[in-house]
Design brief:
Layout: E1 2-4, E2 7-16, E3 22-24, H1 29-32, E4 38-45, E5 53-60, H2 63-78, H3 89-100, H4 106-124, H5 134-144, H6 150-169, H7 196-205, H8 212-221, H9 225-229, E6 236-237, E7 242-244, E8 248-252, E9 255-259, E10 269-271, H10 274-294, H11 315-328, H12 338-349, H13 354-361, H14 366-400, H15 449-454
């Protein structure tokens, strides 16, 4: 047996004596046969209670393998990292989901659970969390690519990376192996929202529909669907034409809930167009009639856009209604969320800087805006570049026009015409009187206004 203050390595076997008791390290064959038995290690680990906890693991075919395993355990312990080689990825992620349930929004938790339970655990759940390596994560992502797009796979990777970051933060893991793995390229597809003409045709078509004002506000303010459905009258200032984004409506397993906006930057005040203000005023009149008709049965959540009885509108119903109305209007099919993209494209087409568009859409960073609408900005920049080029062409054309002839009215006293070298070449040279074109005769008696004041 060998060892130091951090642990020890030893060999033992499963031979038994006549009474059936295991000989362990006392087997005489261990000294005579170097290949008899298997190698173990034992190490004392710190505990939160202060009591000594001895960890013993065996089954190693060589002393070197047992020593490496011992070294790994002692290194983790010396870094203050918890050691538990029997916890699997599945049990670790299950524990992480329980922690996140008290922190994350319900919609986020639904996404986390779907990634963990349907993708990650079936692929690598049986791997001990302490033996998880980058190769395991690469295999996970490669398998997830089957039947899924790159954006979805990137989100799965982000879920695992977030869970392992929690393990590093709580000193359960020494480092995050998912951070060393590059997920597949999930470049955002270029959005192609309706043009100004197509949007106008749609809004004209839905003027008589009950949800027409809702679509007007989404298109005018670039709101997300849940943000528009969560608007309250107390969040609006129709005089100042502003709306505060404070809550959203989300569908969690068929149950509607009020939640906070997507990100901290999403909680902001957005301006309303005059058309949106008029649409809201029209909607309010209709809502008052609904309130009177339902009486005590009216559910008053102070919602701007609600069902006839005041209850929140279901997000999927709004989407289905949008699709039906756009088809009836004879327009090419786009998503409801493309009304938000359309607001951005119209602002960019009007020359609004990308930074302002990002602020209007309440993105968490301008990088998101550039990734999503960069191609639209390029088109706007191309128009600006063409306009600048046209101005330069006009300036060059003006500079190329013949200048006015300022021929001198006096004859030089020498009687000799001063000409450029090129004008003296050739027999048929016409000599022009006066100074060169564009020059003026100097007169020392003509002084500038400044010199006149100083003289």
């Amino acid at each position: 047996m060998t060892g130091d203050r951090r642990g020890r390595v030893y060999r033992r076997c499963s031979c038994r004596d006549n009474a059936g008791k295991q000989l362990g390290q006392s087997c005489p064959r261990l000294a005579a046969d170097g290949k008899h038995g298997v190698w173990y290690y034992a190490v004392d680990l710190p505990t939160t209670t202060g009591k000594r906890k001895t960890m013993r693991r065996g089954g190693f075919s060589t002393k070197a393998a047992a020593s490496r395993a011992l070294s790994d355990v002692t290194n983790r312990a010396s870094q203050g990292v918890q050691v538990d080689d029997r916890e699997t990825v599945a049990s670790f992620l299950t524990r992480w989901l329980q922690v996140k349930a008290g922190e994350a929004k319900s919609t986020t938790m639904r996404s986390y659970r779907a990634h963990v339970e349907k993708v990650i655990i079936p692929a690598i759940g049986q791997v001990p969390i302490e033996r998880l390596r980058a190769e395991h994560v690469e295999q996970l992502l490669a398998g997830a690519m089957e039947g899924r797009g790159p954006v979805t796979v990137r989100r799965i990777h982000a879920t695992l990376r977030s869970a392992l970051s929690y393990g590093v933060k709580t000193r359960r893991l020494p480092f995050n192996v998912a951070s060393n793995v590059t997920p597949p390229n999930g470049t955002r597809p270029e959005v192609q929202p309706w043009s100004a003409g197509e949007l106008a045709a749609f809004l004209r078509h839905v003027e008589t529909d009950r949800l027409g004002p809702l679509f007007e506000v989404i298109a005018a303010c670039g709101l997300r669907r849940g943000e528009a459905l969560g608007l309250r009258w107390s969040d609006l200032d129709l005089t100042q034409r502003t709306a505060r984004i404070r809550q959203t409506v989300v569908d969690v397993g068929g149950r509607l809930e009020f939640s906070t906006p997507k990100t901290r930057s999403s909680e902001a005040t957005v301006p309303l167009t005059e058309r949106a203000v008029q649409a809201l005023a029209q909607w309010r009149l209709g809502q008052e009639l609904d309130r009177q008709a339902w009486g005590d049965g009216y559910e008053d959540h102070d919602l701007v856009f609600a069902r006839e009885n005041g209850a929140p509108l279901r997000p999927e119903y709004v989407t289905r209604r949008f699709v039906a109305l756009s088809k009836a209007a004879g327009l090419r099919q786009v998503r409801l969320h493309d009304l938000r993209h359309g607001a951005a494209s119209l602002m960019l087409a009007a020359g609004v800087p990308m930074a302002i568009v990002s602020k209007m859409l309440r993105h968490s960073s301008i990088g998101i805006t550039v990734d999503t609408y960069g191609h639209l900005s390029e088109e706007t920049s191309r128009v600006a570049s063409d306009a600048m080029g046209a101005l330069l062409d006009a300036a060059f054309a003006a500079a190329s026009e013949p200048a006015r002839d300022h021929t001198a009215t006096t004859t030089p006293s020498t009687g000799v015409e001063s000409q450029p070298q090129s004008a003296l070449e050739g027999p048929n040279v016409q000599v022009r009187q006066g100074g060169p074109r564009g020059d003026r005769t100097l007169n020392p008696r003509i002084k500038s206004p400044l010199l006149c004041r100083l003289s």
